[in-house]
Amino acid sequence: MRRLTIVLVFVMACSMAWAQSNLKGVVMDANSQTPLVGASVTTAENKGTATLENGEFTVACSDRITVSFIGYETAQVAVANCDKLIRVALVPSTSKLGEVEITATSNSNKALINQPASIVKLEKKEINRGMGLFMDDAI
């Protein structure tokens, strides 16, 4: 009897783990319909992922997801069915980035001589010159 109980508990635990589904989808630009690489997708439970080269993502099933990408408006999408592929179209943002300061030590009070990396100041026109995935693309 004890073995039967242990086996039943094990089978139920496995079936509960197997029953948890993942939400799959694709993130694209609303205007050009091109996939967005590296967009951030997070659930209401703060579990997240980034989109792949083709804009696809897989995340734990949730009733609401938040999709964000630099240069685009953040979208919150209600999920009715986790079994269907979800498509999220992000609208380009009209706001432009200002000056961005990136420090290696996260403390800008240190002397510039003590910094372990080279320092480059990007002006607003250089940042807005082109939309790239990384800050290195703007240089």
Q: What this model shows, in words?
A:
It contains two helices and seven strands, in the order αβββββββα. It is α+β, with helices and mostly antiparallel strands and 139 residues long. The chain has a four-stranded antiparallel beta sheet with strand order 3-2-5-6, with no helix packed on it. It has a three-stranded mixed beta sheet with strand order 4-1-7, with no helix packed on it. The protein is elongated. The N and C termini lie far apart (70 Å).
Q: What would CATH call the architecture of the largest domain?
A: Sandwich
Helix content: 10-25%
Question: What is the strand arrangement across the widest sheet?
Answer: 3-2-5-6
Count of domains: 2
Under CATH, the homologous superfamily of the largest domain reads Carboxypeptidase-like, regulatory domain
Characterize the main sheet.
4 strands, antiparallel
* Rg value: 22 Å
CATH class of the largest domain: Mainly Beta
Q: Within the CATH hierarchy, at the fold level, what is the topology of the largest domain?
A: Immunoglobulin-like
First-last Cα distance: 70 Å
Task: Give the helix/strand layout.
Elements: H1 2-19, E1 22-29, E2 40-43, E3 48-50, E4 56-60, E5 64-68, E6 75-78, E7 86-90, H2 124-127
Question: Which labels suit this protein?
Answer:
139 residues; alpha+beta; Immunoglobulin-like; four-stranded antiparallel beta sheet; three-stranded mixed beta sheet; 2 helices; 7 strands; elongated
